[in-house]
Amino acid sequence: PTRPSWKMAPVEAFQLLQDMSPYVKFGHFTANQAILEAVAGERRVHIVDYDIMEGVQWASLMQAMVSQQETSIAPPPHLRITAVTRSGGHRRSVTSVLDTGRRLAAFAASIGLSFSFGQCRLDSDDQLRPAAVKVVKGEAVVLNCALHPPHLPWRSAASVASFLGSASELGARVVTVVEEAVAGGDGDGNRGFVGSFMEEMKRYSAMWDSLEAGFPMQGKARGLVERLILGP
């Protein structure tokens, strides 16, 4: 059998993880439902995504937007996504984000959804300046912030706060935040090595347990997720 290319394998792994485990899917589903309710009836929707990763959250939202209009004369709204990026050699490089944008554009075209994609950069201090986000008059603006450690260790509390704090200036209709609750610690990440290690072990154990429940140990799909997402 043909193995997925290195470039596409992480995308497939994230999609499989979302399909295989409620751990990821529930957060995306809840955020998407809140977005759909907040922008109901709007003709233009603009999502500003703090960490788009591989963009798997938005495929289901696109499908829902199209499905909602099947009984309506009006076409589905135009969806615009702006991904927040950092420059340089970081994991979420501009090139990687634009690759995600191309995949989302292709998917939108395949289901007949009007779509556009762009990116804006954090400043040199990893802060989001609202002026960096291009907002068009008449758009329903949505801010989305999914925090799933440890995939992006560059996220600082100040960087996230600057993103969430821009909601008012950008006129956001709704702000969706998906974050793992961490027991213990002082809330500032200063839990020490042992505390951090134990919390990460609990988090990974929960993910492994959710996969154990419905997928065979030697399954190819599970193996891809374990190697690229959950592996060291």
UniProtKB/TrEMBL annotation:
InterPro entries: TF_GRAS. Pfam families: GRAS. It comes from the Eukaryota. Keywords: Transcription, Transcription regulation. Residues 99-131 are annotated as: Leucine repeat II (LRII). The keyword Cell inner membrane does not apply. A motif (VHIID) lies at residues 45-49. Transmembrane segments: none annotated. PANTHER family: OSJNBA0084A10.13 PROTEIN-RELATED. Belongs to the GRAS family. This is Nodulation-signaling pathway 2 protein-like isoform X1. It comes from Cymbidium goeringii. The lineage of its organism: Eukaryota, Viridiplantae, Streptophyta, Embryophyta, Tracheophyta.
